[in-house]
């Protein structure tokens, strides 16, 4: 892999202007001159230093889901040497519930996405002190999965436990909860399960049991008021923990099933960061990179992929990153080709 160490954006006589990229590979330095360039080197999710700088020191504990090479090097070069304009949510990122036992600094190309743990709507999630901390049924999975990693990371030690009974277990996706990949902890009673989790990092067994009992009681109360309500994981079914006789401080707004059918199962999860939201400002029509100095488009410099900033803030709807990559990748490719042809490739 090449490590890019220098950009030289020389304008001079417009007929002879060019962009120079100095790179290093296996200790050997080389220079590339071109009329145009597309910046598409990802964000900074693989850099603990930049995550800590822009998102907070607790992000050093996050797992990296994918490549270990997205360290923000080209992003930093664009800001420092091309004087590109930064934009977007530099404190935000796409972050999912991730296997706590997964590798820390990069994903596994063989296991791939199997470390993702998005079965939280089918059960409840408790932190190491035995307390729930987010609404597992607030919305459909595609609108919540990319923000709940952040919620987990904000908990003590940045870890939590996903809990299900047999009603939920049978609905878990095999590609995320396959035997041999994920460590599953089982118990014939909730007390037994909580006891086993003490060896996995749970700090308060009694609080864990009280939380599950309180959750179940609120689910039963809702069912008594709404006997005709039906559980449906494909829609927002309104089966919740909130009723006129019992409410929880943190509700479960949909798909609230009581955890009462043994055996019970738990999986320990952490935060897996996918990509960062902060990036470069671009012209949305051409994907040309905007200058921080005067707001104009920097001639011959285009941007696509996760280096584009300003698209996502706080959350992310599933699949939209692929759409962004396709749309602005096409714009950037066309723009770079046309510019190079006009200036004489």
From TrEMBL:
The keyword Methyltransferase does not apply. Residues 20-320 form the FAD-dependent oxidoreductase 2 FAD-binding domain. Its cofactor is FAD. InterPro entries: FAD-dep_OxRdtase_2_FAD-bd, FAD-oxidoreductase_2, FAD/NAD-bd_sf, Succ_DH/fumarate_Rdtase_cat_sf. Keywords: FAD, Flavoprotein, Oxidoreductase. The keyword Flavoprotein applies. SUPFAM superfamilies: FAD/NAD(P)-binding domain, Succinate dehydrogenase/fumarate reductase flavoprotein, catalytic domain. One of its GO terms (molecular function) is oxidoreductase activity. It holds the Pfam family FAD_binding_2. This is Putative Fumarate reductase flavoprotein subunit. It comes from Glarea lozoyensis (strain ATCC 74030 / MF5533).
């Amino acid at each position: 892999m090449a490590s890019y160490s220098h950009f030289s954006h020389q304008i001079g006589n417009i007929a002879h202007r060019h962009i120079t990229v100095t790179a290093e590979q296996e200790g050997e330095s080389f220079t590339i001159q071109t009329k145009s360039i597309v910046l598409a080197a990802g964000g900074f999710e693989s850099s603990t230093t930049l995550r800590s700088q822009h998102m907070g020191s607790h992000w050093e504990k996050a797992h990296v889901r994918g490549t270990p090479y997205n360290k923000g090097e080209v992003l930093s070069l664009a800001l420092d040497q091309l004087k590109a304009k930064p934009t977007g949510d530099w404190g935000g990122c796409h972050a999912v519930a991730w296997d706590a036992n997964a590798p820390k600094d990069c994903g596994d190309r063989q296991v791939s996405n199997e470390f993702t743990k998005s079965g939280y709507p089918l059960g409840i999630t408790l932190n190491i002190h035995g307390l729930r901390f987010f609404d597992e049924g607030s919305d459909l999975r595609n609108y919540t999965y990319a923000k709940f990693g952040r919620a987990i990371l904000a908990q003590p030690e940045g870890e939590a436990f996903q809990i299900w009974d047999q009603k939920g277990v049978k609905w878990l996706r095999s590609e995320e909860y396959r035997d041999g990949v994920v460590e599953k902890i089982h118990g014939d009673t909730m007390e037994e399960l909580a006891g086993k989790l003490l060896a996995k990092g749970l700090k308060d067994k009694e609080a864990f049991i009280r939380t599950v009992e309180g959750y179940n009681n609120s689910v039963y109360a809702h069912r008594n008021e709404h006997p005709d309500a039906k559980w449906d994981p494909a829609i927002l079914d309104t089966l919740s923990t909130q009723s006129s006789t019992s409410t929880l401080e943190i509700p479960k707004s949909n798909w609230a099933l009581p955890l009462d059918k043994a055996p019970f199962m738990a999986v320990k999860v952490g935060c897996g960061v996918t990509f960062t939201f902060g990036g470069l400002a671009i012209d949305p029509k051409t994907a040309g990179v905007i200058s921080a100095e005067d707001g104009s488009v920097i001639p011959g410099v285009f941007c696509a992929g996760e280096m584009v900033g300003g698209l996502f803030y706080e959350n992310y709807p599933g699949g939209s990153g692929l759409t962004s990559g396709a749309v602005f990748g096409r714009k950037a490719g066309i723009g770079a080709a046309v510019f190079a042809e006009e200036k004489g490739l």
